[in-house]
């Protein structure tokens, strides 16, 4: 028994290997292997029913000659660059309102955070689709008969509105960051006669810039990957006005059986996200207070 307790099974290093093994194998087989496989398929003509055939850069050449690719990319960029700033602005405003604690503050925080949990679900997307239908709740409240989801200009704004409604996670992050600001700064500002607007732009906002940067990066990445809302609410219609990049990639893979083409689109998306993220980090020093 004494030998067994001194053996390799009782060493702390062995216990570490045992407890980390599920994550290591899961990461290997469910992340690394699929990523490597998709990279291989990006250079192949593959449609699930037939073996993959190496075609080199053909998929990438076809993508950059596809006008629908540029349409989907433009729709996604427009969605991300509009919805993300609006979401962060609303999140910051609500966080400022909830900063002052009351008995109902925990309830309000949970209520505002709930859309972030439910917003990407199929049920909420279907509900949103019904709300903006011609005979839906929105038209009844406004007293009009307008095809929101049938308009090439309004359909995208319906989905943007759904994305902005999911500001709860950013709001909680802002709220947590504002609670870390030393109250002595506000007391000193009040002694000097500074008002609420002045203290917000001179104290609160500068000290929140690292949190704003974090939220901006995370929400921008999520904006590029929008899929469920576009598929369920409009399916990319009308006239591809809501055809998001990931939705088009999904259609190429599962509707047109062009898996290699879709894999190549996925890697192009990865490069685009990396470029925009790198640009944000490159310009961080000019507006983030550290």
Automatic annotation (TrEMBL):
Pfam families: BPD_transp_1. It is a multi-pass membrane protein. InterPro entries: ABC_transporter_permease, MetI-like, MetI-like_sf. The chain crosses the membrane at residues 21-43, 79-99, 111-128, 148-175, 259-281. Residues 73-280 form the ABC transmembrane type-1 domain. CDD domains: TM_PBP2. Belongs to the binding-protein-dependent transport system permease family. It comes from the Bacteria. Keywords: Cell membrane, Membrane, Transmembrane, Transmembrane helix, Transport. This is ABC transporter permease. GO terms for biological process: transmembrane transport. It is found in: Cell membrane. One of its GO terms (cellular component) is plasma membrane. Coiled coil: none annotated.
